[in-house]
Write a structure and sequence with these properties.
The chain has about 150 residues and is α/β, with parallel strands linked by helices. The chain contains 5 helices and 7 strands. It has one domain: 3-Layer(aba) Sandwich (Rossmann fold), CATH 3.40.50.
């Protein structure tokens, strides 16, 4: 199985790296933001930071579409942040399964990214039980990454 590991370059990447053992035996590639830290990753596609800029979001959606068309992942896994939004919408168009893991830093309120991808994610996990009440019946709690 081929997995696209989608995350921003800070704490979201740290959480994704903590999950690497779970991906053993599968082909993986990263889709993340270009930074000094991510340039050290093997098998990674690096795109500019999106932030809240609509133009960069649109351009990133096109870039991600090209990457996913070329790579053809079976599942897209994301720990956030905003890079998950275009990745999940492109995945939906391509019929690719998606799994979102809400960041460990969100204890009592959902993230902006989580609020958006909750509706398109095939599987949605929170790392704090309290967040189940914030999201709804599609959210699952299985414990934290750390």
């Amino acid at each position: 199985m081929k997995l696209a590991l989608v995350c921003s370059h800070g704490g979201h990447l740290t959480q994704m790296l903590e999950l690497m053992e779970a991906f053993e035996g599968h082909e993986t590639f990263f889709l993340t933001h270009d930074s000094v830290r991510t340039r050290k990753l093997e098998n990674a596609y690096l795109i500019p930071v999106i932030g809240t800029n609509i133009w960069r979001m649109a351009m990133s959606t096109l870039r991600i579409g090209k990457i996913f068309w070329r790579e053809r992942p079976d599942v897209v896994v994301s720990t956030g942040s905003e890079i998950a939004i275009p990745a999940f919408f492109v995945s939906r168009l391509l019929g690719t399964r998606t799994l979102f893991i809400e960041t460990w830093a969100r204890i009592t309120s959902p993230s902006g990214t989580g609020r958006i991808v909750y509706f398109v994610a095939d599987a949605f996990f929170v790392q704090w039980k309290q967040l189940l009440n914030c999201y709804g019946p599609r959210a699952h709690y299985e414990g934290g990454v750390f």
